[in-house]
């Protein structure tokens, strides 16, 4: 069983070949592929976490679609002053499928 822990969008995700992951918006190349930086690689019984060894490892993913996350409502209120602020935010996301771990 081969899997890797990759750094993407300020977080770390555990991925295998065929895994579909939702990440912060990432710009793909002209073929629709991206490369993710591995932090840890597990290949059967061997575990690789050395930076010089991980530099040789490539984790490639195919962009499935770009999407937006759920709306988050931010409200601020101060009593007795008439101060009310209501704002919303939706994160820009990308859904990717892991194609290979070499």
From TrEMBL:
<comment type="similarity">
    <text>Belongs to the bacterial ribosomal protein bL21 family.</text>
</comment>
<keyword id="KW-0699">rRNA-binding</keyword>
<dbReference type="InterPro" id="IPR036164">
    <property type="entry name" value="bL21-like_sf"/>
</dbReference>
<keyword id="KW-0687">Ribonucleoprotein</keyword>
<dbReference type="GO" id="GO:0003735">
    <property type="term" value="F:structural constituent of ribosome"/>
</dbReference>
<dbReference type="GO" id="GO:0006412">
    <property type="term" value="P:translation"/>
</dbReference>
<comment type="function">
    <text>This protein binds to 23S rRNA in the presence of protein L20.</text>
</comment>
<keyword id="KW-0694">RNA-binding</keyword>
<dbReference type="Pfam" id="PF00829">
    <property type="entry name" value="Ribosomal_L21p"/>
</dbReference>
<comment type="subunit">
    <text>Part of the 50S ribosomal subunit. Contacts protein L20.</text>
</comment>
<dbReference type="GO" id="GO:1990904">
    <property type="term" value="C:ribonucleoprotein complex"/>
</dbReference>
<keyword id="KW-0689">Ribosomal protein</keyword>
<dbReference type="InterPro" id="IPR028909">
    <property type="entry name" value="bL21-like"/>
</dbReference>
<protein>
    <recommendedName>
        <fullName>Large ribosomal subunit protein bL21</fullName>
    </recommendedName>
</protein>
<dbReference type="GO" id="GO:0005737">
    <property type="term" value="C:cytoplasm"/>
</dbReference>
<dbReference type="InterPro" id="IPR001787">
    <property type="entry name" value="Ribosomal_bL21"/>
</dbReference>
<dbReference type="GO" id="GO:0005840">
    <property type="term" value="C:ribosome"/>
</dbReference>
<dbReference type="GO" id="GO:0019843">
    <property type="term" value="F:rRNA binding"/>
</dbReference>
């Amino acid at each position: 069983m081969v899997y890797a822990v990759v750094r993407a969008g300020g977080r770390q995700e555990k991925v295998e070949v065929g895994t579909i992951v939702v990440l912060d918006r990432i710009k793909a190349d002209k073929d629709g592929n991206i490369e993710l930086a591995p932090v840890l690689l597990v290949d059967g019984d061997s575990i690789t976490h050395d930076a010089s060894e991980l530099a040789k490892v490539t984790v490639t993913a195919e962009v499935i679609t770009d999407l937006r996350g759920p709306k988050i409502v931010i409200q601020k209120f101060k009593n007795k002053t008439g101060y009310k602020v209501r704002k919303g935010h939706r994160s820009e996301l990308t859904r990717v499928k892991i194609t290979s771990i070499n």
